[in-house]
Amino acid sequence: MLRIFHGNITLNIIITIKTMKKIEIKAEQFFELLRLKDTSMWAIFSQMIDGEEKEMIFLDSENKILFNYILPDNQEKLEEDRIKFSKEFAEKHAHLN
């Protein structure tokens, strides 16, 4: 608890610190598994949602971070992320052609 005093006013503030669960994923193996199972990463992410955000850290073969993704705590936010990702991916792909 944090207690702040100002003149004759006392403000009590309760601070709760939650640590986000971190999940490390070998990127090459993950994407190979998706290919073999003929499924999307979004379908896998959807199965992982349990009401708490998680940091997903994708690693290369030398355990260096390639990128990370904050898995949301609900399906609606995941769908928003999927739509945003698809749009950005399509735009980047169009610029390559």
Description of the structure:
The protein has 97 residues and is an alpha+beta fold. The protein has one domain (20-96). Helices cover 42% and strands 30% of the residues. The protein contains three helices and five strands. It has helices at residues 27-37, 41-48, 75-96, and strands spanning 2-6, 9-13, 21-26, 54-59, 65-71. A three-stranded mixed beta sheet has the order 3-4-5. The longest helix has 22 residues, at 75-96. The model has no long low-confidence stretch (mean pLDDT 87).
> In terms of per-residue confidence, which ranges show pLDDT below 50 for 5 or more consecutive residues?
none
Radius of gyration: 20 Å
> Biggest sheet: strands side by side, in what order?
3-4-5
Number of helices: 3
When the domains are counted, the total is 1
Assign a percent range to the helix content.
40-55%
Taking the sheet with the most strands, its summary is: 3 strands, mixed
Shape category: elongated
Mean pLDDT reading: 87
Distance between the termini: 57 Å
Give me the count of strands.
5
- Classify the secondary structure makeup into a structural class: alpha+beta
The ordered string of helix (H) and strand (E) elements is: EEEHHEEH
Percentage of residues in DSSP E strands = 25-35%
Topology:
Layout: E1 2-6, E2 9-13, E3 21-26, H1 27-37, H2 41-48, E4 54-59, E5 65-71, H3 75-96
Parallel strand pairs: 3-4
Antiparallel strand pairs: 1-2, 4-5
Task: Provide a quick synopsis of the model.
The chain is 42% helix and 30% strand. The chain is an alpha+beta fold. Strands 3-4-5 form a 3-stranded mixed beta sheet. Strands 1-2 form a two-stranded antiparallel ribbon.
